[in-house]
Amino acid sequence: MAQDWKSFEPLLIPDIPNLEKIDVYEENGGYDALKEILNDQETWSRKSVVEEVKQANIRGRGGAGFNAGLKWSFMPDPDGGPRYLACNGDESEPGTFKDRKIFEYNPHLFIEGALIASYAMTVDTIYVYIRGEYLSWVEMLQDAVDDAYEKGYLGDDILGTDVSIDMELTYGAGAYICGEETAMLESLEGKRGYPRTKPPFPAQNGLWGRPTTINNIETLANVPLVINNGADWYGDIGAEEHPGPVLYGISGHVNRPGVYEYPTGVPVMDLINDVAGGIRGGKDLKAIIPGGSSTPPLRADQLDGVTMNSDSLKDVGSMMGTAGMVVMDEDTDMVEVLWRIAHFYSHESCGQCTPCRDGTGWLEKVLKKIKDGEGEMKDLDLLLDIGNQMEGRTICALADAAVWPVRHTINRFRDEFEERCKKSVHAVA
Amino acid sequence: MADLSFTEEELEEIERLKDKFPTAKAATLRVLWLAQNKYGHVKDEVQRLVAETLDLPKAHVHGVARFYTQYYKEEKGKFVLDVCTCLSCQLCGGYDILHHLEDELDIEAGETTDDGMFTINEVECLGACGYAPMLQVTNGVYVNNLTKEKVDKLIKNLRNGNMPEFESMAMPELEKRNQAASE
Ligand SMILES: Cc1cc2nc3c(=O)[nH]c(=O)nc-3n(C[C@H](O)[C@H](O)[C@H](O)COP(=O)(O)O)c2cc1C
Ligand code: SF4
Ligand code: FES
User: Fold this and answer.
1) B-chain residues within 8 Å CB-CB of A137?
2) Cβ A332–B177 below 8 Å, yes or no?
3) Could you tell me the pTM of the whole model?
4) Does residue B171 contact residue A101 with C-beta atoms inside 8 Å?
5) Does domain A238-329 match CATH 3.10.20.600?
6) ipTM value of the model?
7) Using CA atoms, how far apart are residues A41 and A21, in angstroms rounded to an integer?
8) B60 and A191 in contact by Cβ < 8 A?
9) What topology is assigned to A2-235 in CATH?
10) What is the architecture of the domain spanning A334-422?
């Protein structure tokens, strides 16, 4: 796979004008996967759809990379009561801006994927939760949903079968934490977005106490591809342990930032130089954050041969996350960057757990002190220590997400942090 | 303040919002939005109206209104400029844009101009990192790839009552295709 990414033809957002219109989507094979399943439910039993998707190994695109089909298989057997699919369009992890491309350019692919998922899990109601700031994109998706209802792909007795599925869109009102899946459920129930303690897991006890599965928007957009072409075909795209097309969001100091679709496993340096047009102003690369603000940064000298997939990134001590890659040039001040990340997590902590609420606050405070030239050498160890006290001791993963960048930025750019502390007013000659 | 109330039409819309969910409580966020769009904020008296309309405890609605940053718990300027200074925007000059706005409007982030026209806020990532630096106008339109000149023009247009248009940020690959097609 090393080189052939260049000839890849986009699948999630193919090069077809007006694909957001339902007629154009249909003309290009849209809703065929749904039709095939619903018209031949003997071949495509609910279980066999789950099995096919599990085989394909679509790794969740919301950040955690969990096998989607495997997650679906955790839903208990139907008992006649309501069952939900909650689609996560909260997209608030700094560096991440790809799901809205699906709403804008190929909303029906997502709707079709959500419908297939709902059939597979015997779900009757789909909720799509979109961040409140994305109002323009909520409207775009609503137009597509209205058209899908009109054409009989949504609602009662879909395509004349006895399958009935509804889709409701709603949106938040500004809170990063509502992207955490159980906080999203709370918000959907009309409450503050406080993450829930697990267990019980949403598959057992989700929305209004009923079985619920949560998937990211891009994850669901991959589903029709698998049904149309088969799990084996899908598994051959990109990196073996993490297959499929990915919407890479590239931002920061590159010449052509934006969202690009390529398979998993593209070499990081190719993404920066060939895809995103290289570093602005002809400068040198200093570091990247591979997949959203919580994924540990990597120095340029760590990137030799590293590709954008979970195993390769893990080998060098980072993660794939949301594939929202932030690129930093040689003049970037890592102390400023880390302080700003810490500020984000402190601002967004929901405050339920003491180690997170206080810890994120302290991380920010100490980093601000260092950034303002008032830090001492021992503050660096203090930061690492605060992090160790937070990790794994909280209800949700926001605390961990706040700790990782602190730990790894300090360790990987230690000289820069020490330099800043040496110069400070507290330093003793 | 005089007693607040929803019109017949608004109450119908609220019924429709309630129908989206199995409980009335679930409609809290949406009805707060509706109320904010009407009154420009969700101060105490508006929260009370929402609570009464949905037949929910005032404390619940208050808690929700406070939790989410897009709800205005105080009156804001006619145009609220939410400037992103988070990670990618920071790297691409988001703070320069924020400070330029503060200088031009002679207020600091979090404040409103004396004439009630503008409020500036510094906000977290708005999911437009590839088009940094950027800002959002009053929970609505995104204005991307900001320069000082673009900001000045925006301010001028807003003063004249002209809202910016939706900017579709094409996928760079699609952009290339469209360019080729038009040549
Ligand atoms: C603090 C926090 C924020 C998150 N934000 C998002 C988000 O904005 N969008 C998203 O899809 N997943 C987000 N996640 C991950 C979700 O909890 C969940 O794993 C995901 O939506 C599951 O979908 P997937 O398996 O299809 O990726 C977040 C997780 C945490 C801990
Ligand atoms: S870890 Fe932080 S964000 Fe998550 S529930 Fe606890 S306090 Fe809230
Ligand atoms: S960092 Fe500003 S939009 Fe994401």
Assistant:
1) none
2) no
3) 0.97
4) yes
5) yes
6) 0.96
7) 28
8) yes
9) Rossmann fold (3.40.50)
10) Up-down Bundle (1.20)
